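Bench log. Compound arrived from synthesis this morning; before running ITC I wanted a structural hypothesis for how magnesium ion sits in the protein. Inputs:
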Amino acid sequence: MTRGSPRVDVLDAARNADFTAPAARKERVRLEEVFGMNLFGLAEMKRRVSKPHFDAVLATVREGTALDPTVADSVAVAMKDWAVEKGATHYTHWFQPLTGRTAEKHDSFVKPTGDGKAISQFTGESLMQGEPDASSFPSGGLRETSEARGYTAWDPTSPAFIKEGPGGAYLVIPTAFVSWTGEALDQKTPLLRSISALDKSTRRALGLLGSPVAPVRATIGPEQEFFLVDEEFFFRRPDLITAGRTLFGTKPPKGQELDDHYFGRIPEQVLEFMNEVELELYKVGVPVTTRHNEVAPGQFEMAPIYTDANQGADQQHLMMMTLESVARRYGLVCMLHEKPFDGINGSGKHLNWSFGNENGNLLEPGDTPHDNAQFLFFCAAVLKAVHQHQDLLRISVAHYGNNHRLGANEAPPAIISSFIGDQLFDVFEQLVRAGEATESMEGGALKLGTEVIPAIPRHAGDRNRTSPFAFTGNKFEFRALGSSQSVSFPATILNTIVAEAIDEMSDLLEAETGKGIEVEVALESVIAAVAKEFWPIVFNGDGYSQEWRDEAERRGLLNLPTTMDALPHLVDEKNRELFERYGVLTPRELESRYHILLEQYFMTVNIEGETAETMAQTQILPAAVRYLTDLLRAVDAADDADLEPKGILRTARKVNDLVNELTEKLDELAERNQQLGGETVMAKAEHMRDSIIPAMQAVRDAVDPLERLIPDDQWPIPIYRDMLFVK
Ligand code: ADP
Ligand code: MG
């Protein structure tokens, strides 16, 4: 093997890898036996806690009532006994700081008895409250650095579970994370508040509609896309390690390489990986169900069955963590970044969202939606919310990684609109036009032209993958999320804006019925009026087209193409007022989030800028110079042999030109990397956008052509073709 040619080593290593599945997966397991075995769910709690105490927890979970601290003591004991039986030695308060990921600090159950021995102990107090040092988590100005105190508080509505690993097992308790002053420092707190807001507004509306009133839950089902890359490649790319995406690299010629499996590891490896991810998630009660290959080579998707929004958000974090940790057992790295490879499809996360109660899903249209007034009322509320708060939905998916996808013809555009299918389109159009809806289009049956295959029912509307917010049967699918994102904030936004829209519609309804108009009649006129209002947001066509961009502008829809265009609107008066009115975020909490989002943008680009500089300077440039030296030597040798070195000289000139360009652009990037652009976080973020990103691109414009010129065995980093063939 040639020294200094990492690519060739790696190809050999991967080709020769003797892959065997980790022992854990050797024997197949039965779903019924493993599902939930490491989850302290309601069934387990019921078995171990006295009835009155269990009922108290149940009321909290089901109806959101406050929990008596004495109950916590008996739950703590039961939880600890269960966890210790499962081999756990520690517990952790698990929370979602504003980093976008999760955090945990472990404490052991040890309690010295004073005689040189110890017992394991866990109290209600330790269950209910923890005190991690908050100073290392982003607070966006909510906390002076001198005030490090932060608290984690037990969330009884999301069950605790055991995390097992080679390092032992520990009990994980989902918690909220707040500052000493009680302000939210996390994603869960506002999510829980928004869930209550939606519950309250919906119950009120159900009452007005004369429907049975029962606690209402928002439900979510997130579909997760990701890339798998051989770790041999991953760790040879500083950009993947520090930035999560390639900062250099040219797209392999289409087709040929993409279909070429000669070197890729066998698909069984990925299947084994998925099996193990599923097993781990089943154990902690996450019902992962879907798994499949995605559009790009090396890209896959997994999704669980939906559940209520709070637990679903926790499960989503677990899913991301599990994908990442299990991949390493298979010599793979799971990349959750939105855009690991330029020119290759990126990864998103579809957030399926609905709300309902024990009587059913409130977004279930039935076969004839035109006469389902309750459905039309709630569906109209969602569309009204989307129309009213396009900015917030856009902001909820705005971060640097997602900039590379949104609007790039592989993901929904940055313009928010809603696809509602032919049938609903028709029903709402009747309401808009005539103030009433008298019929629903039928889907009918789909005949396949052969008798052996039974006819299958056809949906009344087709799908549309270009829409950022599509009605898909009995839920909305918010498709603009980035793959690395926590679903908590987008779900919080949805819950809050829909709560408001429902309230506004309830107000209208009350005003009508107050005049003595019958509910049924009033309802139709309210829905028709609201449909007129939201109608511009409805778009069933091709969201990728330029025509739609023009049309959207004519309709007056918002277009906030990039993160930096979107973020400042978070703190607009409209939004400040909305979050405060619904008790979801105080103005200070909102301001702090805005600050953190800007800071994250700034820091992410800053890291990329410095990584690009280092790689270009210490890997790419030396490789180019080495090749140039080889070429110049070859020119001398040719002269000695009385050969005409025209071709060698031409190549040398090309390399030399690119080296000149590269060093010039590199100097520029290095200089800009030294600057911050100003004192405020906004000035820094703007510096990144206006100065660093273009300078990085300029360096890349010199590096990528070099990748095509420099000999394969001298190129210092794995290339796209290498990395994209794990299947
Ligand atoms: P797709 O056709 O988009 O793949 P699926 O039926 O597979 O749709 O569902 C995708 C996700 O939507 C799954 O996680 C599923 O559990 C979830 N989902 C289904 N119904 C609801 C609902 N009422 N609320 C939230 N999510 C739901
Ligand atoms: Mg989907």
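What the model suggests: Residues 412 and 467 are 6 Å apart (CA to CA). Residues 219-221, 223, 290, 303-306, 352-354, 361, 472, 474-475, 477 surround adenosine-5'-diphosphate (ligand 1) (CB under 6 Å).
ITC booked for Thursday regardless.
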